[in-house]
Amino acid sequence: MNTVxxxxxxxxxxxxxTKKALDNMAAGTLISIVDNEIAKENVLRLANSMGLSATAxxxxxxxxxxxxxxxxxxxxxxxxxxxxxxLPSKHTTLxxxxxxxxxxxxxxxxxxxxxxxxxxxxxxxxxxxxFFVNSAVRLTCQGSAVLGKLQELEKKGVQxxxxxxxxDFYHLNEExxxxxxxxxxxxxxxxxxxxxxxxx
Length: 200
What we know:
This protein is an alpha/beta fold. The protein folds into two domains: 2-83, 2-Layer Sandwich (Translation Initiation Factor IF3); 92-199, DsrEFH-like (Hypothetical Protein Ychn, Chain: A, 3-Layer(aba) Sandwich). The chain has helices at residues 13-23, 37-49, 106-122, 147-155, 164-169, 184-193, and strands at 2-5, 28-34, 53-59, 62-69, 92-96, 129-132, 159-163, 180-182, 196-199. The chain is elongated, with a radius of gyration of 20 Å. It starts with a strand and ends with a strand.
């Protein structure tokens, strides 16, 4: 049994690495390990395109995809649609209004925000984009305690945006460490076009 560990890799890398491992096998079982829903679905689609049997199981936020290859099975190239890391067709937008989660004690709010972003990373369905406004832009700047969590989300295909007016107000224009600067029109447009809009 062969194993290819794709944890921490964004699409299409898990698909490419899995196909390469399958191409190097005459026959047998391959375990492809991924840590997000998009990669899992795309690896399963790859196996299906090759006519191979594949099943996926999840444990502690990690997917183990078992692919069985019979002698003679192969495919000349990775299907083009699998080279794009697409988010779910349902469009969810997240609007973060503060660098604290909830109202009350500031120290608790910081802990809860870090916990929220950690839990969000473990979800199988992620928002398409996250907008940070008002004091929430501090979370996307240098020195942020949650910058690592946001980087993980960005690697999984989530778009990170910070309000330009807010960055300017807090004198953080030069401190932005992740994502792109956006404006109120773009924020409103995305919120109104989203299938689901969540505000925290």
